[in-house]
Design goal:
Order of helices and strands of chain B: EHEHHEHEHEHEHEEEEHEEHEHEHH
Strand content of chain B: 15-25%
Shape of chain A: globular
Structural class of chain B: alpha/beta
Helix content of chain A: 40-55%
Number of helices of chain B: 12
Number of domains of chain A: 1
Oligomer: heterodimer
Strand content of chain A: 5-15%
CATH class of chain A: Alpha Beta
CATH class of the largest domain in chain B: Alpha Beta
Largest sheet of chain A: 6 strands, parallel
CATH architecture of chain A: 3-Layer(aba) Sandwich
CATH architecture of the largest domain in chain B: 3-Layer(aba) Sandwich
Chain lengths: 325, 330
């Protein structure tokens, strides 16, 4: 069972992600950096609920929409913001940007925007664990768009065949960039794709952090006992554009989602929902949670200042890191 | 080098490198289609399954993309995998993990993460196998920053470069050629490395420098020895590592001879021979007495019919013709 301090941690981590994403909108609009940023707003419960079930030793591989996964796994906030601003102090020293975050020191193995590209890498993380017998679990986050890529099916087959300790965590936000899921596949339910491979699979409300946590916890336990892999589809919705705050590209609004749909989902905002839950069940009082909000706002403000004041990489270091020396 | 030299075939030299590295380092494992089957990988994986078990010698379903990605992912978390593609044509399915992921990984992470993986592709030229079973695709990989590429032409190098590739902290594309599998020479029994990035001068000579890649280095050396009878003295350089290219060794020879022929197992256009030619022209122009010439495959897919194959693969006579052009160029 989750203690009050566990619940507070879940709340803190979600608020942190939500606030970080929202504070990026102004610098994006002010063109303080040009690096493409895929905001995680609206999906906070998935990253936080899943990562709460992991230890620092476990591995996570992520996608283009990686801020939430990085922070939930314990990645350093200042280093992430410095990376987005293109600074030497960034978690990838300004070479990767928002889509290439790394924090191997906390088991965040890396993120990359080639759709489904990190799924097979996560398979390898789990394969390494099975060879070493090190009891780690690997989580592979990907979106519903990745379900159209063949490498996912190759990976499902091999993971099942070798009983690898890997969790396929599909965040179904109903859009593959601009294209609604009904135009990508005949069913909105993704989770059944794992069935023919003999993989345990389920569909979870991805905007309810407790449901996410409980499902992840069970999957992690199964993987640790040699009963992996597992597939979980988290139903969720992104509240911002595919890239940037609202998909405004050169003055053209490209987010074609119906306004009513966005408004309906905004009532399902996972952070507000969880806040209401904590207050309604008298776990925390409103003022206590507001205090947490204020603390986190301050921390993020300081992190932006740190990132903005940090130096850029030097041009003479352009080719540094092509190879590990 | 050693008192324990004995004749060893090229394929068994690879096998010995794998055996020795797997014995020394538990993070080394072999994964790929056909590692249990000599039909796929010749003698290269002989005894490995018996010695190291199926946890570290992993024969896989036909899923090149995911299996290569799995090797890359395992390397990211600290293993030293070798992923084999018994016909490198099938490696094209794995361009994403090789190029987008492995090659870029160190750079994208600002050096925070690296990928010590060996991606091993076997070239299966000839045998009337046609266009999708015979391709030498090193030129495609040569274009990509972040990859190292080795192509051994001798049993000694096949062993030493495999050991070096496994020990390297970066992704190394190791490409061998079935036409070399039965070549024999003295190879030390103990484990040793050939430094990645060092070419070998196979023969000295003052008339012309022949730069060879993989099987063409082998063929060129045979020819160069014959040409001594015609009083033509060729210097022969076996490139061994395509990337990083050992330009110093090449320049040293070119400055002496002023005449160069580059022989490659790949195609002409956009190929490695052209790239080596450009590097020479840019750096040694004032020493050149003739244009740098290339001997490569024609810009044509591999045919099946044996007669067409004879026209397709360059022979010693083809190289000799070009050497004569270069020597007599005024």
């Amino acid at each position: 069972m989750l203690s009050n301090s566990d619940l507070q941690k879940l709340y803190r981590d979600m608020v942190k992600i939500k606030f970080v994403e929202e504070t990026l909108i102004k610098p994006i609009n002010d063109k303080l950096f040009k690096c493409p940023v895929h905001l995680y707003s609206g999906q906070e419960a998935v990253a936080v609920g899943v990562c709460a079930a992991l230890t620092t030793n476990d591995y996570v591989f992520s996608t283009h929409r990686s801020h939430g996964h990085y922070l939930a796994k314990g990645g350093d906030l200042k280093a992430m913001l410095a990376e987005i601003y293109g600074k030497e102090a960034g978690c990838s020293r300004g070479r990767g940007g928002s889509m290439h975050l790394y924090a191997p020191e906390v088991g965040f193995c890396g993120s990359a925007p080639i759709v489904a590209g990190t799924i097979s890498l996560a398979l390898g993380g789990a394969l390494a664990s099975s060879i070493r017998n090190d009891n780690r679990v690997t989580v592979c986050f990907f979106g519903d768009g990745a379900v159209g890529e063949g490498v996912l099916y190759e990976s499902l087959n091999f993971a099942a065949l070798k009983k690898l300790p890997v969790i396929f965590a599909c965040e179904n936000n109903l859009y593959s960039t601009h294209l609604p899921i009904r135009e990508c596949r005949i069913s909105e339910d993704v989770y059944r794709i794992a069935e023919p491979f003999g993989i345990r699979t389920s569909k979870i409300d991805g905007n309810d952090v407790l449901s996410v946590y409980i499902s992840a916890q069970k999957a992690v336990e199964a993987c640790r006992y040699g009963d992996g892999p597992e597939f979980i589809e988290f139903k969720t919705y992104r509240m911002r554009g595919h890239v940037g705050p609202d998909d405004n590209i050169q003055g053209t609004h490209t987010d074609i989602r119906p306004r009513s749909e966005v408004e309906n989902w905004s009532r399902e905002d996972p952070v507000s929902k969880f806040k209401r839950y904590l207050i309604k069940n008298s776990i925390f009082q409103t003022f206590e949670l507001n205090e947490i909000d204020a603390e986190i706002e301050q921390e993020i403000h300081e992190a932006h200042t740190y990132a903005q004041n940090n130096p850029f990489p030097t041009k003479s270091d352009l080719k540094k890191y092509v190879f590990k020396q | 080098m050693s008192s324990n030299n004995r004749k060893l075939q090229y394929s068994l030299a690879i096998n010995e490198a794998l055996k020795q590295k797997m014995a020394l380092d538990e993070s080394v494992f072999l994964i790929g289609q056909g590692v249990k089957s000599p039909w796929y990988v010749g003698n290269t994986a002989k005894d490995l399954l018996e010695l190291y078990g199926n946890a570290r010698v992993i024969d896989t379903p036909v899923s090149e993309n995911a299996m290569t990605g799995a090797a890359v992912g395992a390397a990211i978390v600290g293993m030293r995998p070798i992923v084999v593609h018994p016909r490198m044509d099938f490696m094209l399915y794995a361009f994403d993990p090789i190029i987008n992921q492995a090659a870029n990984w160190s750079y994208m992470s600002g050096g925070k993460s690296n990928v010590p993986v060996v991606i091993w592709g076997i070239v299966n030229r000839g045998g009337e196998q046609a266009a999708q079973h015979s391709q030498a695709l090193h030129g495609l990989f040569n274009h990509i920053p972040g990859l190292k590429i080795v192509m051994p032409a001798t049993p000694y190098d096949a062993k030493g470069l495999m050991v070096a590739a496994i020990e390297d902290d970066n992704p190394v594309i190791y490409i061998d050629d079935r036409w070399l599998y039965e070549v024999e020479e003295d190879v030390p029994e103990e484990s040793f490395t050939i430094p990645i990035g060092k070419a070998a001068v196979r023969k000295l000579g003052n008339d012309v420098t022949i730069i060879g890649i993989s099987y063409m280095a082998h063929l060129t050396l045979l020819l160069a020895n014959e040409l001594e009878n015609d009083n033509i003295h060729c210097a022969v350089i076996d490139v061994r590592t395509l990337k990083p290219l050992d330009i110093e060794t090449i320049f040293e020879s070119v400055k002496k001879t002023g005449r160069v022929v580059v022989t490659d197992v790949g195609w002409l256009t956009g190929g490695v021979a052209g790239d080596i030619s450009a590097v020479i022209t840019e750096n040694c122009f004032k020493y050149l007495k003739a244009p740098v010439m290339r001997v490569t495959l024609p810009d044509c897919p591999a045919p099946s019919s044996g007669v067409l194959e004879e026209a397709y693969y360059p022979t010693k006579d083809d190289i000799k013709r070009v050497i004569n052009q270069v020597i007599h160029y005024k």
